[in-house]
Amino acid sequence: MAGLALLLGVYLVGVGPLRERYKLADHVDPRQLATFCAGIVVIFFALASPLHVLSERFLFSMHMSQHVLLTLIAPPLLVLGTPDWLIRPLLRPNWSFRVARVLTHPVTAFAAFNVVFSVWHIPALYNTSLNSEAVHALEHIMMVGTAVLMWWPLTSNLPELPRLDYPFQMGYIFILSIAQIIVFAIITFAKEPLYDFYVQAPRIWSLSPLLDQQLGGIIMKVGSGIYFLVLLIVIFYKWFNQEEAVRKLDSERTIRQ
Fold first, then answer.
1. Measured between alpha carbons, how far is residue 152 from residues 63, 75, 192, 222, 233 in Å?
2. Tens-digit pLDDT profile for residues 181-200
3. Main-chain dihedrals φ then ψ at residue 49, nearest 5 degrees
4. Model pTM greater than 0.70?
5. For 69-93, how does the pLDDT look when each residue is reduced to its tens digit (9 = 90+)?
């Protein structure tokens, strides 16, 4: 909670007093402010609601729901809600810009998130995180951090580190949708529970450890699959409208000539 409050505090100071003092921008887009705050609220809900209690003490499936919020919902809101003028001063040193360009490159961002996400689901490491608050906090920080990188090619507001063009966005999302199939398959189709912590946890909702694990795998994959499908449709619609606008402009130029 302290880290979350610090993140929100730094953002508000940046878009408020620092913006005015260093004349970074004339005004703040209220939609961006609301979007960033919405991302903070999603993280707060994931970490401070009954969902957190259920995931920490009882159900693997609720832990997967928590991870969906932390990696698929909150990060794009945080990126979309961050103005370009707030980030640009941090990139003025050449070394800083070079590092940021490497980290936000689609290949790097994709690999970083999926490696981190997969490694943290190795049973030994996963069980350790559930038995140690410090390790669990590290897990969430790494997941959210690499998820921000993963979403950057789709949601960036910064021209210097731009979004992918619409066709490449669609390809990127398609690859994201299939990237976790191995983890999903191992978790969902295992013949016995993989995580001892949830085997020993009190049983609620009449869910056996194995059924709970299978449900968690389904939430992770099917939930993200539906989410990515909706994004594909939205991006295709935007691409179509963009192409139509270009064709209309070309037609008008031809008529004038």
1. 25, 9, 37, 23, 19
2. 889 999 999 999 999 999 99
3. -115, 175
4. yes
5. 999 999 999 999 999 999 999 999 9
